[in-house]
Amino acid sequence: MVVLEGIDLDALNYVVKAPYNGTGAQGGDPMTENLNIWYEFLLLGSCPKKVGTFAHLALDHGHGRIFLPMVLLGLLLTFSHTAGPYIGNLANFGFKDVLAQPSVGSDRIPDLLFAIYQGMFSAITVALATGAVAERGRMLPCVVFMFVWATVIYDPIACWTWNPSGWSNKMGGLDFAGGTPVHIASGAAALAYSMMLGKRRGHGTHELNYRPHNVTHIVIGTVFLWVGWFGFNAGSALSANLRAVMAAFVTNLAACRKWSTVGFCSGVVAGLVAITPGSGYVPSWAAVPYGILGAGFANYATKLKFLIVGNILTAFFARADIAHLDNIQTIEGGWLNQHWIQLAYQLADSFAGGTYSFVGTCCILFILNLIPGLQLRATEDAEILGIDDAEIGEFAYDYVELTREVLNDADAEGEAASHYSADVNPFDPREKNSIPLMDTRIYAGTSAQQQQQPHAR
């Protein structure tokens, strides 16, 4: 017996590494053998590394706003040890007794670690849903919506999908890393929010020119998402094992590509979204149809609103041996295992989550809009001025303010200057902060000088 600081090391639950015996072309049958015993990486710890996920979520406004309700209510409503088929209870309110007890997700990690990990899912889901607010929604009601939606909509869907007591989980629905609770729920909520807000000012006219304002930012954001997705998908194995490796592999392979930069980034995200629910259930080759079909359907999503491609494909390609690569979970598989009823399970879970999210979001927004001070839609003047300036008094780029002041001759009367950015001391619009300014009308084809001085003949 080896004792270190009062701990009997021989009594710990080790996965004993063994020399590879060369059995079979694939190294063995995961349904009858623990294939994890051959590899050293399994001794490095059970907590998946998610540096990329945290780096991405550090930029996410929803993270700070959602972690508090997750601490107070989210864990107990979603992953309570005594939860019902739809929702948890108040046994762990305010993280009471949440520390070292094995979590409902896996007995290999404690409640506290599992809560932090699942808090990231909640934060990113709310961020996806509230993207619909851009350009025409007010900030304050959006913040209130984040708190309410995470508690009333996200938590029940996550409970019935991932909690062992949930009705979908018991039924046999397969969702490895967020198909219904994250993507379908947020997509339905974003659609509802958009419809409740109404069309943007100038919709269908030349006033709205849908062009990316910064392609470099799109690329950087895609990189953060792509790396972070490994944390979500591979990390959902809740241990460092071959199932986590397979999830990481299919996640990377499913990310589609296109030659243009923006198209490349859009294809990457479409593939990542599609593979998420099946990443811990499908073989490596299945990532290819996930990526192709996911990106193909997403290309027409503006007409079809939202789709459940990833969840449906999981019914076709899920395999029992892939799910058992962790030597723990046992499923009946999908159509590749002749388990035909799996498609019905996936459809039931997907439509239930999407319908609940859409209807619930509409109800929440309708009530919020009736409360004084929480009107959802920004005024027309605020839309013209710009939501950044009207709501929070900031600009992403200084040239937005400068261009506005030059074009409207703000130096003369200051009538077009913004409420937040107006300077008490007037300045020469030809120079600000020692930077010479240019009259942007020259880019319209005719400069101000040309307008004043006719061409010599």
From TrEMBL:
It is a multi-pass membrane protein. The chain crosses the membrane at residues 66-87, 112-133, 140-163, 175-193, 214-232, 262-282, 351-371. The keyword Membrane applies. Keywords: Ammonia transport, Membrane, Transmembrane, Transmembrane helix, Transport. Gene3D superfamilies: Ammonium transporter AmtB like domains. Its main location: membrane. It is found in: Membrane. PROSITE patterns: AMMONIUM_TRANSP. Belongs to the ammonia transporter channel (TC 1.A.11.2) family. Residues 70-397 form the Ammonium transporter AmtB-like domain. InterPro entries: Ammonium/urea_transptr, Ammonium_transpt, Ammonium_transpt_CS, NH4_transpt_AmtB-like_dom. This is Ammonium transporter. Signal peptide: none annotated. It comes from the Eukaryota.
